[in-house]
Design brief:
Number of strands: 18
Number of helices: 27
Radius of gyration: 35 Å
Structural class: alpha/beta
Helix content: 40-55%
Largest sheet: 9 strands, mixed
Strand order of the largest sheet: 3-2-1-4-5-7-6-8-11
Shape: elongated
Strand content: 5-15%
Oligomer: single chain
């Protein structure tokens, strides 16, 4: 593998000058794919060409089936060219390359179109580099007899990493750190080692935000080390053309089904709508809005409800990460069919953002109610290339072991890392193999401890109750309050005559008198209005009552027509009551001692869920003793005095 990578890197270095280092990947990645496919199809090339001549009259679909059968693969090439013939005719190389690419089946031709390989070939030809590059790749022996699918996959992955490091684009847009992927993969399989190691094991893995295919590749590599004979199907989807091309190329090189990698926005066009998978992996965008996808998502949520992907709710439009979480869950096999396990990287906000009955809270509650959250692992900061924020791996499953049912495991790995010698973008830290082993062990052992805590699902549920206080007001026709009345909207609509009559009526009340009973105040106000020949319709009466009123704990309680106390909106408050607590007992303990006249409006009670990860791992650090601080201050002051003495001397 090392020799092949070094060989290709040398080709890339020969591009220096006409191409920037950030552009090398656009040359060597598609050329590596092209050379590999050329070698893979070499043995059946004569048969494919013979069949192609004999089926010209058949319908297109049938032609494709016959050509696939002849090639022995799910792709083919009907061009007479191969690399040997291409380099044998340098003068016509550019045109012949186009003819060669056009001979591929549509599912492979798509890869080169998304790479925009034609533009690359044109630039190579323009800079007189095309023949040199093609000739060097022709010398590479990528035949499956020499380089297996697994080995070729490793070569291509190394090239992808190499190209990403030299790219001027934000690496994190396309690339998840390999050690983070390794951790996610090991978490996925840690509890299934026995089943995965058995002969004849058949599994499927899916990534809805596949990028360049790193997660699928690491999962493939890990499982094949466990069980070389495992039958593994890899599926992925991505919306970025080049990332999709790289991922699809990687899967083709590994011998995977070329049609299992799809292009498109997963949220608006699920390419695998009818498929369910054994395992899922995803690193969706952090903090990216989904306003462009909102019409599609809202439509699915409204029309399909829980028969669709977004039945539990939708998050704030500013961050769509939880939509991908719901999408992953929708891809789980039914429990009776064996169930599934999924792992997704999210930032901190999905743990706690949104209040009770809000979209995010409803999603969390639905996940907990359905016992789908198995573990959440807090990662160190500065782990990713394009963000330094805190990140968390959520492990989701619908096939928990007996001891895990009704439980959620939180693992604090925020201090498990080693510093990079040289930072890459925002990435300053990485997980060592020892760190990964520790985290996976904590997960597998499933015990309470300093870095691993076990909770019941309902420990993260709560009820938000609305606590009301009675409306108690006094009324006084002071100049300031009268001015406020005259500025009210309902008063502004009065005619000049009625406005004058209202002010006169208010003056009649007298600036000194204070009413502490609303009925008494209303009687006095109506008498004053009658004396000024002024009608008091309900909107006007309400405006005057509001603007002349002021909160007063010594006043009588205002009541409705049934004699019930009216709530004071300005004193309204909410309390989050833990799920397992009785609301009345909570209020008696936490509210009534401080507000004896308070009550709960049960009609406004909302159910919610949050996972306060940081709070559960908070460790109190006592402040330094004052004596120690004083000694340090005195030492610093002495140093400053000595320095000042030197300057003055």
């Amino acid at each position: 593998m090392v020799n092949h990578v070094a060989f290709i890197w040398n080709i890339a270095e020969s591009l220096r000058g006409p191409f920037k280092p950030s552009e090398y990947g656009s040359v060597v990645l598609p050329f590596t794919v092209l050379r590999r496919l050329d070698a893979v199809l070499a043995d059946t090339k004569p048969s494919v060409l013979d069949v192609a001549k004999s089926i010209e009259s058949l319908p297109g679909m049938l032609q494709a089936i016959k050509l696939q059968e002849a090639s022995g693969h799910q792709f083919y090439n009907t061009s007479s060219f191969d690399f040997a013939k291409l380099v044998a005719d340098p003068a016509d190389l550019r045109a012949n390359l186009s003819a060669y690419l056009a001979g591929f089946s549509p599912n492979v031709r798509d890869i080169f179109e998304r790479f925009e390989f034609d533009k690359t070939l044109n630039k190579l030809a323009e800079k007189n580099k095309l023949f040199a590059v093609t000739e060097k790749f022709a010398q590479a022996d990528f035949h499956p007899r020499t380089v297996s699918n697994i080995q070729m996959g490793l070569v291509f992955e190394e090239l992808i990493r190499w190209a990403n490091e030299r790219s001027n684009e934000t690496a994190g847009d396309h690339y998840t750190p390999r050690e983070v992927i390794s951790l996610m993969v090991q978490l996925l399989f840690a509890l299934d080692d026995d089943a995965l190691s058995k002969a004849g094991a058949v599994r499927s893995i899916y990534d809805p935000t596949a990028g360049t295919g790193g997660m699928l590749s690491v999962a493939d590599e890990h499982l094949r080390k466990m069980n070389p004979g495992i039958q593994l199907s890899l599926y992925g989807q991505d919306y970025n053309d080049q990332s999709y091309a790289i991922c699809k190329a990687d899967m083709v090189i590994k011998g995977q089904d070329v049609d299992n990698i799809a292009l498109g926005d997963t949220l608006t066009e699920d390419a695998f709508e009818d498929k369910r998978f054994d395992y899922g992996l995803s690193n969706p965008p952090f903090g990216v809005d989904w306003k462009d996808q909102r019409p599609f998502v809202d439509d699915e949520h409204t029309k399909l409800g829980f028969n669709g992907r977004f039945g539990p709710g939708t998050p704030a439009v500013s961050d769509g990460a939880m939509l991908f979480l719901l999408h992953l869950v929708s891809k789980m096999r039914k429990r009776e069919d064996g169930g599934s396990r999924m792992a997704i990287v999210l930032n901190g906000s999905p743990l706690f953002s949104g209040g009770a009955a809000g979209g995010e809270s409803n999603i969390r509650k639905w996940l907990l109610d359905n016992d789908l959250v198995e573990a959440i692992i807090g990662l160190p900061k500065d782990m990713f290339y394009n963000t330094g924020i805190s990140t968390y791996i959520w492990v989701l499953t619908n096939r928990k072991d007996t001891e895990r049912k009704g439980r959620v495991q939180l693992i604090d790995a925020r201090e498990m890392f080693r510093k990079l010698r040289k930072g890459l973008g925002s990435k300053r830290n990485e997980l060592s193999p020892e760190n990964i082993e520790t985290i996976v062990s904590l997960y597998a052992v499933f015990e309470d401890g300093e870095q691993s805590k076990i909770f019941r699902n309902e420990d993260f549920l709560y009820r938000t109750i609305t606590v009301e206080r009675p409306l108690k007001l006094n009324w006084q026709a002071s100049p300031e309050r009268i001015d406020a009345v005259m500025r009210a909207k309902a008063v502004q609509k009065l005619s000049e005559t009625d406005a004058g009559a209202l002010r006169a009526a208010l003056d009649r009340l007298g600036a000194e008198r204070v009413w502490k009973n609303r009925d008494d105040f209303h009687k006095a106000l109506k008498d004053a209005a009658k004396a000024e020949d002024l009608a008091l319709p309900a909107p006007l009466l309400k405006a005057v009552t509001t603007e002349l009123g002021e909160q007063d704990d010594t006043a009588d309680t205002c009541t409705d027509a049934k004699g019930n106390p009216e709530p004071d909106a300005s004193l309204r408050d909410t309390e989050n009551v833990p799920w397992h607590e009785d609301v009345d007992a909570y209020v008696a303990r936490e509210v009534l001692p401080y507000a004896p006249d308070a009550w709960v409006d049960h009609a406004k009670t909302k159910e919610g869920a949050e996972i306060p990860f940081t709070r559960h791992f908070y460790r109190y650090v006592p402040p330094r003793p004052l004596e120690e601080i004083d000694r340090d201050l005195e030492r610093v002051m002495n140093e400053l005095r000595a320095m000042l003495a030197e300057v003055e001397g």
